[in-house]
Design brief:
Layout (H helix, E strand, L loop, with lengths): L7 H7 L2 H9 L8 E6 L12 H5 L14 E8 L2 H9 L13 H10 L1 H4 L6 E7 L24 E2 L2 E2 L10 H10 L2 E7 L4 H10 L3 E5 L7 H13 L2 E5 L6 E8 L5 E3 L5 E2 L9 E8 L9 E7 L6 E5 L23 E4 L2 E4 L3 E2 L5 E2 L6 H5 L14 E4 L2 E4 L9 E2 L5 E2 L5 E2 L2 E2 L4 E4 L2 E4 L3 E2 L5 E2 L17 E4 L2 E4 L18 H14 L8 H4 L3 E6 L14 E7 L5 E8 L5 E6 L10 H44 L29
Parallel strand pairs: 3-6, 6-7, 31-34
Antiparallel strand pairs: 1-2, 4-5, 8-11, 8-13, 9-10, 9-12, 13-14, 15-16, 17-18, 19-20, 21-22, 23-24, 25-26, 27-28, 29-30, 32-33, 33-34
Helix pairs in contact: 2-4, 5-7
Keywords: Calcium, Cell adhesion, Cell junction, Cell membrane, Cell projection, Disulfide bond, EGF-like domain, Glycoprotein, Integrin, Magnesium, Membrane, Metal-binding, Myogenesis, Phosphoprotein, Receptor, Repeat, Signal, Transmembrane, Transmembrane helix
Protein name: Integrin beta
Subcellular location: Cell membrane; Cell projection, Invadopodium membrane; Cell projection, Lamellipodium; Cell projection, Ruffle membrane
Length: 654
């Protein structure tokens, strides 16, 4: 477990993990042990602060943290869950400076310190719990640490003491040690680092990744799920193979699932009691130099059982034991005649042992090994021995130099799709000899015309040539794999409509030129549409329905047989529509006009009534609201007139 400061809340939940996990695992196995280890980081700058105060307490404020350390084996594997709770409960959080942690150092020590950890010969699980990334090989240079990790145990008093001396291990180094010690790894990490550890899982066989909650409250269920996932898969691995030896796997899994190559190494979704089988082929492509036997081991990951295979190489033919020493066939007894060839005695060379080694380097012999007008001996592909070229052997035994001057080979021919002669021929003296139905310098041109066959049974629709299994359309209007696509062309029916019309009914646009332009097909008349050929016959068939110049429909079929002959079957009587009945049409038109007029009058009348009613209502409303006042009427004149006598009240002067 990562005990850096960010894992403080996680530690509280792990303190009670022992007994709870024991109870859960008892449901799966009767023999279960649990241990605990913790890690932080290398105890050098810049991974931690090396000031005396920070070495005593790397946390800030009032936090009480333990001194930083690289890896500590807190509790070796035990069956006492209470002891786990007790010791883990005494652990304290520590701290470091950078975000990635030194977890790889911890994994390496857990893997190689089997005696201190207490590993037994049973299923071994390592649960790696953290909320951060990891340092790996090369990162130690930041702290001045350049020595590669030695992959050995360095625990003293349960503490890793060489973190300041050895670099972090590489991923490949971890994979090797985990595999050697049959340890299956479960990465319990937070959601933030899921992607990183899933990539790491792909590099470490027999490992799993689970999502750890922010406070590790789900760690028990995570371990159970990961254990079930790991135990339901079998993956085979083999030890390092000798030079020239290859191995292939084929798996026979549940429900008839079979795989080969890399997937042939494993079977998934299996449970206790299921039987799966693997077929393994071991091939020796060359003999070992010293002829000694070799051993390879094959085992399922996570298990200690293994199969040991002792390889005994057969490097000599059986016929060699029947050889004739000092045979006359080998130039007067200068060699042993075996397996149809001479094996020369010491000091003799040549195909028939006809030369001595003293003659090998003579210039006269070299002249026989040069091609005319060439200075190269054996085309630089062999040695001149006894006036004859002995061609070089290549690492790939399937690649051979040949010819009198070693001028030929079977691997320098033209290639197609990465294969010599496209895989469709044999390379002889740098020239491809193609299999039947193939041609070209790289045998990449197929003579098979089936890919060029159009839907009408014609090669390239009769509008192109088939070249190397591909249509080369000669008519620029047509395109497509079989020259059947034409964006500007009429269909079959429209194309032949005029010719069928002129030949069958003696009318249409081509009536005058019918005998010159329309004799390219055979025509047969039938009585009705039912008598026309129907789909299902061998020749491609098109059913057509077209209009003639009199607006009558006529029906015909068009087909092309295997000989390329066009055949037309036409119904002898066109279907002409009957003329219209004038009286009902006129009556209908008149009735429609009358009805529309009445409807318009009714609508107009209705609108007028609505309008009048609105106006009358408005008038009534204004009438009710009117208040007549004479003083306010500008045209009102009072009927009363007042006149004053000017002499009224005066005394008479008389």
């Amino acid at each position: 477990m990562d005990l850096s400061y960010s894992m403080k809340d996680d530690l509280e939940n792990v303190k009670s993990l022992g007994t709870a996990l024991m109870l859960e695992m008892e449901k799966i196995t009767s023999d279960f042990r649990i241990g605990f280890g913790s890690f932080v980081e290398k105890t050098v700058m810049p991974y931690i602060s090396t000031t005396p105060a920070k070495l005593r307490n790397p946390c800030t404020g009032d936090q009480n943290c333990t001194s930083p350390f690289s890896y500590k084996n807190v509790l070796s594997l035990t069956s006492e869950g209470n002891k786990f709770n007790e010791l883990v409960g005494k652990q304290h959080i520590s701290g470091n400076l950078d975000s990635p942690e030194g977890g790889f150092d911890a994994i390496m020590q857990v893997a190689v310190c089997g005696e201190q950890i207490g590993w037994r010969n049973v299923t071994r699980l390592l649960v790696f719990s953290t909320d951060a990334g990891f340092h790996f090989a090369g990162d130690g240079k930041l702290g001045g640490i350049v020595l590669p990790n030695d992959g050995k145990c360095h625990l003293e008093n349960n503490m890793y003491t060489m973190s300041h001396y050895y670099d972090y291990p590489s991923i490949a180094h971890l994979v090797q040690k985990l595999s050697e010690n049959n340890i299956q790894t479960i990465f319990a990490v937070t959601e933030e680092f899921q992607a990183v550890y899933k990539e790491l899982k792909n590099l470490i066989p027999k490992s799993a990744v689970g999502t750890l909650s922010s406070n590790s409250s789900n760690v028990i269920q995570l371990i159970i799920d990961a254990y079930n996932s790991l135990s339901s898969e079998v993956i085979l691995e083999n030890s390092k193979l000798p030079k020239g030896v290859t191995i292939s796997y084929k798996s026979f899994c549940k429900n008839g699932v079979n795989d080969t190559q890399e997937d042939g190494r494993k079977c998934s979704n299996i449970s206790i009691g299921d039987e799966v089988k693997f077929e393994i082929n071991v091939t020796a492509n060359e003999c070992p130099k010293k002829g000694q036997n070799e051993t390879i081991k094959i085992k399922p990951l996570g298990f200690t059982e293994e199969v040991e295979i002792n390889l005994q190489f057969i490097c000599e033919c059986q016929c060699q034991s029947e050889g004739e020493p000092n045979s006359p066939a080998c130039h007067e007894g200068n060699g042993t005649f075996e397996c149809g060839a001479c094996r020369c005695n010491e000091g003799r060379i040549g195909r028939l042992c006809e030369c001595s080694t003293d003659e090998v380097n003579s210039e006269d012999m070299d002249a026989y090994c040069r091609r005319e007008n060439s200075t190269e001996i054996c085309s630089n592909n062999g040695e001149c021995i006894c006036g004859q070229c002995v061609c070089k052997k290549r690492e790939n035994t399937n690649e051979v130099y040949s010819g009198k001057y070693c001028e030929c080979d079977n691997f320098n021919c033209d290639r197609s799709n990465g294969l010599i002669c496209g895989g469709n021929g044999i390379c002889k003296c740098r020239v491809c000899e193609c299999f039947p139905n193939f041609t070209g310098s790289a045998c990449d041109c197929s003579l098979d015309t089936f890919p060029c066959m159009a839907s009408n049974g014609q090669i390239c629709n009769g509008r192109g040539t088939c070249e190397c299994g591909t249509c080369n359309c000669t008519d620029p209007k047509f395109q497509g794999p079989t020259c059947e696509m034409c964006q500007t062309c009429l269909g079959v029916c429209a194309e032949h409509k005029d010719c069928v019309q002129c030949r069958a009914f003696d009318k249409g646009e081509k009536k005058e030129t019918c005998s010159q332009e329309c004799m390219h097909f055979n025509m047969t008349r039938v009585e009705s549409r039912d008598k026309l050929p129907q789909p299902g016959q061998p020749d491609p068939l098109s059913h057509c329905k077209e209009k003639d110049v009199d607006d009558c429909w006529f029906y015909f079929t068009y087909s092309v047989n295997s000989n390329g002959e066009a055949n037309v079957h036409v119904v002898e009587t066109p279907e002409c529509p009957s003329g219209p009945d004038i009286i009902p049409i006129v009556a209908g038109v008149v009735a429609g006009i009358v009805l529309i007029g009445l409807a318009l009058l009714l609508i107009w009348k209705l609108l007028m009534i609505i309008h009048d009613r609105r106006e009358f209502a408005k008038f009534e409303k204004e009438k009710m609201n009117a208040k007549w006042d004479t003083q306010e009427n500008p045209i009102y004149k009072s009927p009363i007139n007042n006149f004053k006598n000017p002499n009224y009240g005066r005394k008479a002067g008389l």
